[in-house]
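Is flavin-adenine dinucleotide placement plausible here? Inputs below.
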Amino acid sequence: MKITEVYEKKKRSLSFEVFPPKKNSELKSIDATLEVLCELKPDFISVTFGAGGSSNRNRTIELAKKIKYGYHVEPVVHLTCLTYDKQEIDAFTKVLEEEGIQNILALRGDRNPDLQEKDDFKHASDLTAYLKQKGDFCIAGACYPECHPESENRVSEIRNLKTKVNAGAEVLISQLFFDNGCFFRFVDDCRIADINVPVIPGIMPVINASQIKRMVTMCGASFPERFQKIIDRYEDNKDALFDAGMSYALSQIIDLLVSDIDGIHLYTMNNPAVARKICEGIRHII
Ligand code: FAD
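Reply from A.M.:
I modeled the complex. Tokens:
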């Protein structure tokens, strides 16, 4: 099933992101998380691809198959393109077609000095256009409520996003953010620019201090005062930060759900405790 069908049938989607377990741990190590997530009958679960520079293409497909055929939930497979040529992308999509996987999150990928960039795809929009003419896939794309770190300015960011949508991106999933106001302003800008596809907010519950530091370096998400206070107060108290981080994420989700948004996408970090806490918190709301 293509995930666009979800938005044709109902107003809002619930989805999760997981990543393939590391090479030396078994795929079944993610079962505890998937069992909790699938109880809520999500509309789709997305599976990351080579995030952090590691090459785990086969694991991404293995995990997507497990989600589709073991848990009967639609997978969305992430696919980056900066370090691949057309032949390599063709080989990957051939396997997806053989496995009946129809949804791809088409990404450029982060620049990595250790990996050679190739010439076929410069931007996610190039991959999106290529995949659209290659097969019968539903293509999703990434978007950035607070701009991508390489962005020139907000206007060019929205213009480039429009290029991606015109190339065939049918759903947009956002980078994490902690200030819902940023997301609401971003969606308004998209609509003004005539970007009319669903824009799904990505929420990441913060559960430890090193994770917060990594995130700020990576994506530059701004911290509202209320969130900064939580970090200042509980940075060195793991359990308290877990509780406060989960409550903050839940309050963000509820604020989004009571507003006119297209769905919720939760970055689970493969953590069953996070999945359980969030799922319990929204069970009767979603
Ligand atoms: P693009 O859409 O190409 O945008 C990147 C930058 O280039 C932006 O500043 C944009 O404005 C600019 N740009 C775009 N098109 C043009 C153009 N035509 N001309 C000039 N400038 C242009 N990374 C992984 O490695 N694996 C994953 O599984 C993964 N999953 C992700 C999931 C989500 C929801 C998100 C938000 C990100 C994910 N990433 C992942 C990170 C992503 O690969 C990086 O953020 C990457 O740096 C940009 O990818 P993109 O697809 O957004 O690129």
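Short version: Residues 48-51, 78, 80, 107-110, 123-125, 142, 148, 150-151, 157, 160, 163-164, 173, 175, 202 surround flavin-adenine dinucleotide (CB under 6 Å).
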